[in-house]
């Protein structure tokens, strides 16, 4: 039962943080950032927020922008959500999209020579 609540709170936070980042934060370091996942601690007092960005290679710049906006995001969450505790937020780059792009590129490279041989 506890993991069900943890997952519900994580998904609620993901939607709320994504809206705040897109609509409320004007910091150019945060432009193009997508919130992909939120993982809650067991006591719901801390959250790991994962983000990705559109292949601009400035992951660290985006993370610093999100870190500096963290207190503002928490204040907005406190106003918007009816939670007993608003968790401490930690931001991490989600490299799963980069990995999938790399795998797709490798698969295309493997497939390309096969089509050239058949012609």
Characteristics of this structure?
119 residues; alpha+beta; GMP Synthetase, Chain A, domain 3; three-stranded mixed beta sheet; 18% strand
CATH superfamily: K homology (KH) domain
Computed CA radius of gyration, to the nearest angstrom? 18 Å
CATH class: Alpha Beta
CATH architecture: 2-Layer Sandwich
Order of strands in the sheet with the most strands?
1-2-3
Structural class by sheet pairing and helices: alpha+beta
How many separate domains make up the residues? 1
Beginning-to-end CA distance, first to last residue: 59 Å
Name the overall outline.
globular
Strand content: 15-25%
If you consult CATH, what is the topology? GMP Synthetase, Chain A, domain 3
Q: What's the mean pLDDT score?
A: 89
Treating each run of at least 4 consecutive H or I residues as one helix, how many helices?
A: 3
**How many extended strands?**
3
Largest sheet: 3 strands, mixed
Reading the helices and strands in chain order gives HEEHEH
Assign a percent range to the helix content.
Answer: 55-70%
């Amino acid at each position: 039962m506890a993991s069900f609540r943890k997952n519900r709170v994580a998904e609620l936070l993901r939607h709320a943080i994504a809206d705040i980042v897109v609509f409320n934060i004007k910091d150019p370091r945060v432009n193009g950032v997508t919130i992909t996942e939120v993982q809650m601690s067991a006591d719901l007092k801390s959250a790991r927020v994962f983000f990705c960005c559109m292949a601009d290679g400035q992951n660290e710049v985006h993370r610093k922008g999100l870190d500096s906006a963290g207190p503002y995001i928490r204040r907005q969450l406190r106003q918007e959500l009816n939670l007993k505790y608003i968790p401490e937020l930690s931001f991490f780059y989600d490299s799963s999209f980069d990995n999938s792009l790399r795998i797709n590129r490798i698969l295309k490279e493997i497939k390309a020579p096969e089509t050239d041989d058949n012609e």
